[in-house]
């Protein structure tokens, strides 16, 4: 018997720990393949990220070129943070089909009506704005203050908050930012290149507070036939005491009213586009909407109440229809659009039996310009 030695043990263990020579190329091939696949994956990820960055930069550059020098875009890019453009209901709370029309573009049809849309119209009668855009002959201006009101009202779960978010999405899709240059503000001129559609208030489309009293006194004098020049008003009826959210919208509307008066007197053009300030009234049971959503905390609802701006507009220009030259002959100075049926049917249609359609209220000199009930 051969004695067992330590050298034999070491040699046998070393031989067993070393892999066979035939398996070494396979292990090296797997390692190389893993490294190559990892490198390809990282290269693909880098290329994807670079492509995404280029697309994002292109969108930003395009947006900057389209909005440069075109005034203020709608409500922080029209409220893109609130989601897509699908309707969330019917009529004022989320009209189905409101966003199905293509974005407003230049048309050959001339402008026949110029309308300043109060925030109350966008909250309680958004369908009316949709119909005016569809008609294709209206130049609709949304005051900056109305955009601010929508921005304040968009947060919350109340019906007004949801309507504000819907209105912001609608404005973002339907707004046109390139119809007029900053130097071309005279929409009522016979040489104007104004286009139909929906637009934000531009810089300069706003009356100064000290000019209001002059316009008011001029409108009260139906025999005065000269362009309106209002740099010496004294604000005898304390225009500055009006709440800011009403005053700013009213100053925008009065600027357009004065522009039309001057165009008619200066050019003698009775066919100039008509002008109207459009608003809507809240439903009589608005407090019941809040009761139906006890978790909501409704704030600033008074900013969307069309009754306030209607009161002050009538106070400013109570005799606006006294002279044919001082009022739009084809339209109305103040239009109270019908409140959307969704505001009238819920929740009080069951509780109070008041689900009937609201009547269109108008301050009108011509019955032919009335809005149809919907």
UniProtKB/TrEMBL annotation:
Biased composition annotated in UniProt, kind: Gly residues: 81-95
Low complexity bias spans: 1-23
Domain PIN as annotated: residue spans: 115-178
Residue segments, region Disordered: 1-29, 60-106, 355-374
Identification of the protein by name: PIN domain-containing protein
């Amino acid at each position: 018997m051969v004695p067992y030695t330590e050298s034999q043990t070491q040699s046998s263990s070393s031989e067993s720990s070393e892999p066979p020579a035939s398996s070494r190329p396979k292990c090296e091939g797997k390692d190389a393949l893993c490294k190559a696949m990892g490198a390809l994956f990282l290269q693909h990820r880098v290329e994807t990220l670079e492509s995404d960055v280029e697309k994002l930069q292109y969108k930003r550059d395009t947006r900057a070129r389209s909005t440069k020098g075109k005034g203020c875009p709608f409500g922080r890019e029209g409220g893109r943070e609130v989601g897509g453009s699908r309707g969330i209901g019917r009529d004022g709370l989320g009209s189905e089909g409101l966003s199905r029309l293509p974005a407003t573009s230049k048309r050959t049809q001339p402008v026949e009506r110029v309308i300043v849309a109060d925030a109350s119209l966008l909250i309680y009668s958004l369908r009316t704005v949709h119909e005016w855009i569809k008609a294709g002959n209206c130049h609709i201006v949304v005051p900056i203050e109305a955009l601010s009101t929508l921005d304040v009202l968009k947060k919350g779960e109340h019906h007004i908050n949801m309507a504000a978010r819907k209105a912001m999405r609608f404005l973002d899709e339907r707004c046109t930012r390139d119809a007029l240059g900053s130097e071309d503000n005279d929409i009522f001129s016979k040489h104007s290149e104004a286009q139909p559609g929906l637009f934000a208030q531009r810089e300069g489309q706003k009356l100064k507070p000290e000019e209001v009293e002059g316009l008011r006194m001029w409108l009260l004098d139906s025999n005065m036939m000269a362009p309106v020049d209002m740099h010496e008003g004294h604000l005898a009826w304390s225009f500055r005491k009006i709440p800011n959210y009403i005053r700013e919208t009213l100053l925008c509307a009065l600027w357009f009213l004065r522009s039309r008066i001057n165009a008619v007197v200066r050019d003698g053009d009775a066919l100039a586009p008509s002008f109207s300030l459009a608003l809507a009234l809240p439903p009589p049971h608005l407090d019941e909407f809040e009761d139906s959503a006890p978790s909501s905390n409704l704030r600033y609802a008074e900013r969307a109440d069309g009754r306030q701006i209607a009161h002050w507009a009538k106070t400013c220009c109570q005799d606006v229809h006294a002279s044919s030259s001082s009022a739009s002959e084809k339209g109305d100075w103040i239009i109270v659009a019908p409140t959307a049926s969704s505001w009238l049917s819920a929740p009080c249609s069951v509780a109070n039996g008041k689900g009937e359609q609201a009547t269109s209220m108008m301050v009108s000199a011509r019955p032919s310009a009335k809005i149809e009930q919907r």
